[in-house]
Amino acid sequence: MADDKKLVEQITSMDEDFAQWYTDICKKADLIDYSSVKGCMIIRPYGYAIWELIQKNLDTRFKELGHENVYMPMFIPESLLQKEKDHVAGFAPEVAWVTHGGSEKLTERMCVRPTSETLFCEHYANIIRSYRDLPKLYNQWCSVVRWEKTTRPFLRSREFLWQEGHTMHATAEEARAETVQMLNVYADFHEKDLAIPVIKGAKTPSDKFAGAEDTYAIEALMHDGKALQAGTSHYFGDGFAKAFDITYTDKENKVVHPFQTSWGVTTRMIGGIIMTHGDNNGLVLPPAVAPIQVVVIPVAAHKPGVIDAASALADRLKGDFRVKLDASDNSPGWKYSEYEMKGVPLRIEIGPRDIEAGQCVLVTRHNREKTIVKLDELEKAVAEKLQAVRDGLYEKALANRQRRTYDCETMDEIIKKLAEGGDGFVRAMWCGDPECEDKVKEVTGVGSRCIPLEQEKISDKCVCCGKPATQLVYWGKAY
Amino acid sequence: MADDKKLVEQITSMDEDFAQWYTDICKKADLIDYSSVKGCMIIRPYGYAIWELIQKNLDTRFKELGHENVYMPMFIPESLLQKEKDHVAGFAPEVAWVTHGGSEKLTERMCVRPTSETLFCEHYANIIRSYRDLPKLYNQWCSVVRWEKTTRPFLRSREFLWQEGHTMHATAEEARAETVQMLNVYADFHEKDLAIPVIKGAKTPSDKFAGAEDTYAIEALMHDGKALQAGTSHYFGDGFAKAFDITYTDKENKVVHPFQTSWGVTTRMIGGIIMTHGDNNGLVLPPAVAPIQVVVIPVAAHKPGVIDAASALADRLKGDFRVKLDASDNSPGWKYSEYEMKGVPLRIEIGPRDIEAGQCVLVTRHNREKTIVKLDELEKAVAEKLQAVRDGLYEKALANRQRRTYDCETMDEIIKKLAEGGDGFVRAMWCGDPECEDKVKEVTGVGSRCIPLEQEKISDKCVCCGKPATQLVYWGKAY
To answer: Per-residue pLDDT tens for B234-271?
Structure first.
């Protein structure tokens, strides 16, 4: 049992040092590794398998809604980046610049894409002519680069993987509907598949995407009470279309500008999964994106028939679930620790006595609940348990958020409630003045996260200046 | 019918100008577009859908053989690139250099990966300790950059998409077996799924990958008689392992170096598909990678019941095939041209008389053969036709290669046969001297493509110097 203990000892307790606990999981669950490329991460097979499941799920959702995938160049010439003024101001300070090709200096330097609005716009200007060409519903899966000073695996790294949807519509209404539709897709994916409850809302003007008219986001609360912006969806109006001279001939034969959206989620979601569901034994994965949903572990494997029974059991489940049989020489205890660390939602133990009784033991990762199941009811039991894991994770995360959500009417109340309950979401009214927004952050430490789509009236005064206020805002400390 | 004609007129004839015909197809079949990023291409939805089908097929094959996907950083610090001497000499002249992050100059410049051996090696040095850690069978799907002077869509562009497998093995034998196994995977994929016959062979020493002990390739002959290197698989021995200090403790407790391979195919394969199967009506896609395998076109669509019948027919096929119903207002003739241009393997026409007779018309793209099929035999007929398209494409490509393959014993014979028959594969013996290799190219215009794994004895003398020669070499002009 010395080995078992060692494995668990390697993780810092989340209560002791949440940041170190997070990094420990990234490394010990074999999600990432570091390299000599500062600020970037290697996504290892187990981490990448999670990403592939996320991609597959979202890609199916996007395509069902009529989106098509494309691939744009990874470089953006400086002059192209500069075409939309707000956009370049937002991104130029944090891009990587390519200045040489081989031994030759480029006549114009190019950045590695931090996002691809400019490239999509240039292309749309080429291919959109008539109302018959609209809508254009494009998406791209790729890596992007932003030259961050402080980096953390998945949460903030110089290079990350993402998808970026870029769509063009005949009318503002249709583009606005797309913006909200994709926000809802992200929210649904987070809640149903990642078991992460989210708040859907609009960003305040100071927090909008560079060049957007409106930015929407889904905000999740992590186990430690800090907020994570988990996905964004932007409405651009016709601002980029004007800057890039994108026009089409409408049904009345007039030449007009189309309306645009973009929306994206990134490998950051993996960080969100870790910080929402993980515990002191390691990662806890929601079944929808778990590379291994069920691990089968033979107990007393040296006894005759045990490996065979475990193997038969794994084979039975393989058609319906992602299953791994671990028939290695390691002790069952070591294996339990190992697959708990890796967050496998469901473990099946089977030993000589189980075989005799025609049963096996199911153990759910998140609560270590054991259930003895008759072998002839196995498929049904496994499906139910995986659903129970998803539901249990969601309820636990929701309870954490509810416990850490504070309705406040004054800044003093914010300070007091955060001090008493720990970090979390503060819900408080805001008059709309950016100065108040800044002051709340300065005085209480929490910044505006979003103006939730589902509004409630907590009071009728701004939490900062006391003037009349009609907007409920979620405030928090953010990753 | 004016419209129909216009569409077809837009392509240059392949007999008139093969290069222009190729570019025309890339553009007119909506595969790519250009942008202000010189030497790079936009892969449009239809082109990207082909790539996604290629990816899915290969990814499944790789995973079935135990490979796992990972993601490495896209940057390589200059010092890391320089660790293996042959490798840096091969790639440094053609990389894009990042010198600035935001407004700050980097202390060490980094290149955008032209290939990732160096990053994989650094990582392997971190994670391989014991023989139990071997083999490591990793693959990566990503984009890479090589600063080419002359570029053509898919065939040679500054950025392209690819997969790069990187594996580490305990023994040289095992690594060699992997190298050949992956070459065979590529060959099988090309022959069975892309319907492109290939020659499997080894590259001559002058043509090896920078840092490899042996490079294997599959070589295909395009319609115009030029060769296309369609995939490569490299055996590295322990050269990189030594340069990167990758060691493991073997079963006898000795610290030794592992043995390495890498292998890759790229979006270039799409170029190969175009130039192998395309014709003067446009693209011709092998069914395995056709985004639309079957297009259903209603004839006399204004007549009652026609659209409904076509729609019902498309719905019936949707479970088994990738089907599109085109019920738009365009004329049937316009649609025929459009989907011929896009290379859709099978067209189904259905009009009032067909409905009455309980039948429809199947037309195969590559030979325009029409078959009348009873509706109750539709699924079977469609499956058979798609197989017939694949077989027909393969046979046509093989016949082209056979017609254009010339066995030669002297350089005069090479010149004569190429002049008579047009460009193609020359099969001739080689003594192994690089000077002879160069001279053959200089005098006859064809370079060595590969030393085929299946050797035959055409003569016993080198085609160049006349000294004894035991190696049969395929020679050709290459893309």
So the answer is: 999 999 999 999 999 999 999 999 999 999 999 999 99
Spacing of C-alpha A254 from chain mean position: 42
Q: Give the residue ranges of DSSP H helices in A138-264.
A: 172-188, 239-243
**pLDDT tens figures, A327-372:** 999 999 999 999 999 999 999 999 999 999 999 999 999 999 999 9
A427 backbone φψ class: left, alpha, beta (φ>0; ψ -120 to 50) = beta
Cβ contacts below 8 Å, chain A against chain B, sum to 148
Q: Which domains does chain A have, with CATH numbers?
A: 2-277 (3.30.930.10), 292-387 (3.40.50.800), 405-476 (3.30.110.30)
Rounded to an integer, what distance in angstroms lies between the CA atom of residue A443 and that of residue B113?
A: 46
Q: Which of B42, B79, B101 sits opposite A123 (nearest CB)?
A: B42
Residues in chain B: 479
Q: Which two tokens stand for residue B173?
A: 């034998």
Q: At B248, which amino acid appears?
A: Y
């409106």: which residue's tokens?
Answer: A214
Asked if A145 reaches chain B (Cβ–Cβ under 8 Å), the answer is yes
Number of helices (H), then strands (E), belonging to chain B: the values are 15, 23
- Placement of tokens 């009506």 in the chain: B281
Record the pTM: 0.97
> Would you say B431 and B469 are in contact if contact means Cβ atoms under 8 Å apart?
yes
Q: CA torsion angle for A412, A415, A419, A420 (degrees, to 10)?
A: 50
Contact A313, A375 (CB under 8 A): yes
**Pairwise CA distance, residues B256 & A316, whole Å:** 41
Q: Cα–chain-centroid distance for residue A411?
A: 31
| Per-residue H/E/C for A274-290 | HHHHCECCECCCCHHHC
Residues of A in contact with B68 (CB under 8 A): 45, 48-49
| Phi, psi (degrees; rounded to nearest 5) at A288 | -60, -30
| Contact list, B75 vs chain A (CB under 8 Å) | 37, 40, 96, 159
If DSSP codes are grouped into helix, strand and coil, which group holds residue B453? Answer: coil
CA distance linking residue A465 with residue A451, whole number of Å = 18
| Residues A246 and A258 sit within 8 Å (Cβ to Cβ) | yes
Whether the CA torsion B348, B354, B357, B361 is positive or negative: it is: negative
CA dihedral B439, B444, B449, B451 (to 10 degrees): -70
The CA distance from B118 to B462, in Å, is 38
Chain A residues touching B49 at Cβ < 8 A: 68-69
Question: Any chain A CB within 8 A of the CB of B150?
Answer: no
Q: Inter-chain contact B102–A94, Cβ cutoff 8 Å?
A: yes
